Amino acid sequence: MLKTTQTKFRTIVLLFFLFSIITSFTNVEKNTSIEDFIAFEVTEEVPLFKGCDGSSSRKEAVECFNKKMMNHIKRNFTYPEEALENNIQGRVEVSFIINEVGIVKDIQANASNEKANEKKILETEAIRIVSLLPKFTPGKHQGKVVNVKYGLPITFKMM
């Protein structure tokens, strides 16, 4: 029964993620220094998942990136058992850098929960999911390979 419940929760969280990703671009820092990183939404050539290399425009590349990101989360998401047992829900804002060689680094997560133990449970799962991302083709801005900061919300909700 726990597996069936987890499958249902995965589906619910995925739906929330799909809704949330549309708004995620407004939550990424816009005041960036080109020496440190460039925000994903202003990067001229976004980082690419394997399989997105054939995108003919920035719009297609972003759509492919978002689709591959959703698939990655769907495949790797597991509602934490302790969260299930204790009815812990919340929204975690996750941000990370895709560096100049395409590796994910500096993963940060901030859950909306007030209780520290609840925050930690959800943040740990969000960080785990992001840490499993594959190596990317690095992003470029003004003709140079750059660090790109990307952010997204992951919602943990039980229904």
Automatic annotation (TrEMBL):
Query: Where does it reside?
Result: Cell inner membrane
Any one Gene Ontology molecular-function term assigned to this protein's record: energy transducer activity
Q: Which family does it belong to?
A: Belongs to the TonB family.
**Bilayer topology:** Single-pass membrane protein
Domain TonB C-terminal per the UniProt entry, residue ranges: 64-159
What is the protein name stated in its UniProt record?
A: TonB family protein
* NCBIfam families hit by this protein: tonB_Cterm (TIGR01352)
Q: Name one GO cellular component term.
A: plasma membrane protein complex
- InterPro entries from the entry? TonB-dependent_transducer (IPR051045), TonB/TolA_C (IPR006260), TonB_C (IPR037682)
Keyword annotations: Cell inner membrane, Cell membrane, Membrane, Protein transport, Transmembrane, Transmembrane helix, Transport
Q: Give the matching Pfam families.
A: TonB_C
The protein's predominant localisation is membrane
KW Cell inner membrane (keyword) present: yes
Q: Name one GO biological process term.
A: transmembrane transport
